[in-house]
From TrEMBL:
Residues 248-265 have a biased composition (Basic and acidic residues). Belongs to the peptidase A22B family. This is Signal peptide peptidase. One of its GO terms (molecular function) is aspartic endopeptidase activity, intramembrane cleaving. It comes from Plasmodium falciparum Santa Lucia. The keyword Membrane applies. The lineage of its organism: Eukaryota, Sar, Alveolata, Apicomplexa, Aconoidasida. One of its GO terms (cellular component) is lumenal side of endoplasmic reticulum membrane.
Length: 281
């Protein structure tokens, strides 16, 4: 739902449908407010239909739809504060993935026997029964670093507008705002090349390959190469998505002032009015 909300804002209007009901006091004293909109209802119906189809049929298309949804959700929830943490995370999983694929066949065995949508399935044309697999970890982990690159591109764009005086970091980026995405496009291209190399090695050796063996060097090399070519290596290393204490205090005081100013507005929303009517009854 979070994916479609910025794309179709008219379908996700706040307080579009508000329904209030009250339970017996011994169960719950406060009035319960059901607040939704067209977009949430459509997403709920589609999610329910896709889930039912996967339970009864378990076809690879529905399986992949659920798996990709998990990827989007995971990438949107996990935020890296800087590139060094991202490099350390990928490097650790790089060693982990190699050991459990080459050193032991546990990961391959579990991936083949586990039916939950925690991997992408690609049918093999010559064998309709067997599938090629790509674990979600091979998508989510590099994807988290890709999202950091996109935020860094946005930071550079805003920093250029403010002539280098920008201190604020941005976790939310408007999809309708146009800016140059050098780091984001570079890491995507290198990631795709890493996937191509992975499948080439898979067909050549005829043995399961740890995708992170090729994806981790590709992603790290992409960021380093782009930062060196743009002469922004030091800026990239120093980039931090946590503001300093002074900025935090200033932001906190501003937020308190905003909250005080917005109290009358909040009391006039449909949800609050519905609660008042129930309470008065």
């Amino acid at each position: 739902m979070k994916i479609w909300e910025p794309v179709f804002p008219n379908f996700f209007k706040k307080d579009e449908y508000v329904k209030t009901f009250k339970l017996p006091n011994f169960i719950y004293k406060e009035p319960i407010v059901f607040n939704t909109n067209k977009g949430e209802i459509v997403c709920l119906i589609l999610s329910f239909a896709i889930g039912l189809r996967w339970i009864f049929y378990k076809d690879f298309i529905t399986h992949n739809v659920l798996a990709v949804s998990f990827c989007f959700q995971a990438i949107s929830l996990v935020i890296l504060s800087n590139f060094l943490i991202g490099f350390l995370l990928l490097s650790g999983l790089f060693v982990y993935d190699i050991f459990w694929v080459f050193g032991n066949d546990v990961m391959v065995t579990v991936a083949k026997s586990f039916e939950a949508p925690v991997k992408l399935l690609f049918p093999v044309s010559s064998d309709p029964v067997h599938y090629s697999m790509l674990g979600l970890g091979d998508i989510i982990i590099p994807g988290i670093l890709m999202s950091l690159c996109l935020r860094f591109d946005y930071y550079l764009f805003k920093n250029n507008i403010h002539k280098g005086n920008l201190k604020k970091m941005f976790n939310d980026i408007s999809i309708h705002e146009s800016f140059k995405k050098y780091y984001f496009y570079t890491i995507i291209i290198f990631y795709e090349l890493g996937l191509v190399v992975t499948y080439c090695m898979l067909f050549y050796f005829e043995h399961p390959q740890p995708a992170l063996l090729y994806l981790v060097p590709a992603c790290i090399l992409a960021i380093l190469a782009c930062s060196i070519c743009k002469r922004e290596f030091k800026l990239m290393i120093k980039y931090q998505e946590i503001t300093d204490k002074s900025n935090t205090v200033d932001d906190a005081s501003k937020n308190k002032k905003k909250d005080k100013e917005e109290i009358p507005k909040i009391q006039e929303t449909p949800v609050s009015n519905a609660k008042k009517r129930i309470t008065n009854k």
